[in-house]
Amino acid sequence: MAPLFSRSWPLALRVSVQHARVFPLNFYFDQFVTGLASACSLFLVASGLSIIFGVTRIVNFAHGAFYMLGAYIGFTLTEQFSGAFGFWGAILLAAIVVAAIGTLIEIILLRRIYDAPELFQLLATFGVTLIVEDLALLIWGPNELLGPRAPGLKGAIDLFGLPFPTYDLLLIALGPLVLGLLWLLFRRTTWGVLVRAATQDREMVAALGVNQKWLFTSVFALGVFLAALGGALELPRQSANHTMDLQVITEVLVVVVIGGLGNVLGTFLAAIIVSELNAFGILVFPKISIVLVFLVMALVLIVRPWGLLGRAEAAARAAGGAAILRWRPLAARGRLAVVLALAVLALAPLAVGDYYLTVATEVLIFVLFAASLHFLIGAGGLVSFGHAAYFGLGSYGAALALKQFGLGMEAALIAGPLLGLAGAILFGWFCVRLSGVYFAMLTLAFAQIAWSVAYQWSDVTGGDNGLLGIWPSAWAAAPAHFYWLTLALVAAGIAALRMILFSPFGYSLRALRDSELRAEAIGLERRRIQWISFAIAGGFAALAGALYAFLKGSVFPDNLGIPLSIDGLVMVLLGGVDTVSGGIVGAALYRSLSIWIISHTDYSKLALGLLIVVLVVLFPKGVVGAFESWRARRAPRTGGESS
Q: Comparing C-alpha atoms, which of 398, 410, 356, 421 is closest to residue 592?
């Protein structure tokens, strides 16, 4: 995974680095102005997500994909149709085209699932992101595409003795202009008043008779337009490439959270803060430059969860829906089925080869990872966007125990989970002080801090080169032996999670999920219970990470990255949040299909994205949830158990 702030540095920064020792004062001023140009570019994209997020409460992971589409379509229009539209006309037309695409996606897909739990809308936008990534690869090819320079703005001006790109001056002027136009739109029009009202309390706006569907559609279209415009305007500064979406969505999420959901002025200020930290961090704190932004994000969330200029929002819908069936421990028939399933899995090495055993081992590891996240989301109602942090800490803990301290695999499989547990205890202490989307964003901030440390602390972690040679002990080196070890540990881990789920502690955790007010009224201490559950989930995720390190023989910063956290959410949601075994089934389904699709097509993201979208539309309660609903309709509930 490339650094999240690795977008091509502007010409001024490259020149400034060369002159830093000769003109220190000029250099710092040049850095500041370069940061302003980046801030204005970032603001265009972030303001779109802030508006969408503020009104619809959709964590639109497709926002980065629309930004990327704006760049690619802008490249095509400026290269092939600039004579008809001119450069600026082509840039504007690219943003309009992408906005139209986004509007169709909202009407055809998102509008169909607005009544589903909000996390399923996140899952749908993740599927759209995968589809767009491979469509861009299919249409424009794998190579980076460098767009033309803006006419009349190709050169540089002398800025206190240093050359500064003229185009960046345009961006600096464009940012406040867009801010002013958005302020007028939201403050001086009826539509803008409704949008601001929906940002604070959607239910009240609906009670006033406002057609929320078309309000959401118009907001989504405006947000996508701004994202695409930002992408198209980046063409003179950087080439269009397939990593743009992930790079920008991370920065944008940080900006939106720091500024405040739905607050455009706050987004503008946050974009300046983030961009200047990015510009000066590499000079002042080169060893922790990537960490700085996420430290600031975490600090803002802890001190002022709703952002610098945001407001505390009205209570939103819970992430999960009402339970389909009351959760019950397995009855005798269910326990027998589990024993038979474990027996079949244990006999698998007698029937399949090493390749399939390796695949099965990987699936089992991610079953445990998803089960730990499902424990947090399903039982605790705590949606984490950074659960990969503990998976990665478990991987690094096991690898460092083996490489740095010379311990064997057995001790490393203890050290890894202990490191992940320590991280979950530390991060969880802060996270459980928040709730809802603010909790989710703080987990993301801590996960990115962990990722940044792993990426930059190369003396210990190996940085981007990772840690290699993490192999099992001789007795477990054979694929069949490591498979049996993994099966035993995963089965024990899932059994332990299920025992906790149906213990008095588990009932207390679910009581807080269902009604925090009532639970606290009978004496349950919310923070302590949720903190313990956070630590439990992190510890089991770390065990999965330690096993993964020995399976792959290596550990990289990707083990802590956002994509893995999103994969975990996808697994849980596909299985069904409101079911006991949804994480297990979802992980087995998603990981198996991912591996199979990757081995059979060069456009695996397209196929997987389409599959996710279809499953979200057909099974908005998840696969297991849909099965439970079907079973409940066929026979009256007579005290049976939930899956």
A: 356
CA 289 to chain centroid: 21
Supply the DSSP string of 18-69, one letter for each residue: HHTTT-HHHHHHHHHHHHHHHHHHHHHHHHHHHHHHHHH----TTHHHHHHH
Helix, strand, coil abundance in the chain, percent, nearest 5: 75, 0, 25
Q: With cut-offs at 50, 70 and 90, classify the pLDDT of residue 201.
A: low
Quote the strand ranges of 245-317, DSSP E. Answer: none
Amino acid at residue number 257 = V
**Under 8 Å between Cβ of 284 and 424:** no
Measuring CA to CA, which residue among 545, 409, 399 is closest to residue 477? 409
- Give every CB contact of residue 141 below 8 A, 6+ residues apart in sequence: none
In sequence order, what are the residues at sequence separation of 6 or more whose Cβ sits closer than 8 angstroms to the Cβ of residue 43? 175, 178, 179, 255, 267, 268, 271
Q: For residue 434, what are the contacts with CB-CB under 8 A and spacing of at least 6?
A: 301, 302, 305, 442
Which is nearest to 391 in space by CA: 354, 422, 362, 416? 416
- Are 50 and 259 spatial neighbours (Cβ–Cβ below 8 Å)? yes
**106, 117, 135, 324: which is closest to 225 by C-alpha?**
106
Q: At what angle do helices 118-140 and 562-575 cross, to 10 degrees?
A: 120
The whole-angstrom distance between residue 257's C-alpha and the CA centroid of its chain comes to: 13
Close Cβ partners of 633 (under 8 Å, ≥ 6 residues apart): none
Q: Which two tokens stand for residue 144?
A: 């980076």
> pLDDT by residue (tens digit) across 213-255?
888 899 999 999 999 999 999 998 889 998 888 888 888 988 9
Are 195 and 185 in contact by the 8 Å Cβ rule? The answer is no
Of 582, 603, 516, 465, which is closest to residue 131 (Cα–Cα)? Answer: 603
Q: What distance separates the 2 farthest-apart alpha carbons in the chain?
A: 82
Q: What is the pLDDT of residues 417-475, one digit of tens each?
A: 999 999 999 999 999 999 888 898 899 999 999 999 999 888 899 998 999 999 999 99
Q: How far is CA 487 from CA 349, 491, 492, 499, in A?
A: 12, 6, 8, 18
Instruction: Give the right CATH number for 332-634 from 1.10.3470, 3.90.1310, 2.60.120, 1.10.1760.
Output: 1.10.3470
| Contact (Cβ atoms closer than 8 angstroms) between residue 251 and residue 79 | no
Question: Shortest CA distance to 235 belongs to which of 431, 374, 94, 332?
Answer: 94
Instruction: Give the residue ranges of DSSP H helices in 189-259.
Output: 190-200, 202-207, 212-233, 244-259
Cβ-contact 252, 45 below 8 angstroms: yes
Task: In whole angstroms, give the CA distance from residue 300 to residue 260.
Answer: 10
Mapped onto helix, strand or coil, the DSSP state of residue 201 is coil
Residue 623 has a CB neighbour count (10 Å cut-off) of: 20
Q: What span, in angstroms and rounded, lies between the C-alpha atoms of 26 and 399? A: 45
> Hey, how many other C-beta atoms are within 10 angstroms of the C-beta on 554?
19
Name the residue with tokens 């986004």. Answer: 102
Using DSSP's 3-state secondary structure scheme, residue 347 falls into: coil
SS3 letters across 530-589: HHHHHHHHHHHHHHHHHHHHHHHCEECHHHHCHHHHHHHHHHHHHHCCCCCCHHHHHHHH
Q: Are 375 and 443 in contact (CB under 8 A)?
A: no
For residue 367, name the pLDDT band (cuts at 50, 70, 90).
very high
Domain ranges of the chain: 246-317, 332-634
- Whole-structure pTM value: 0.88
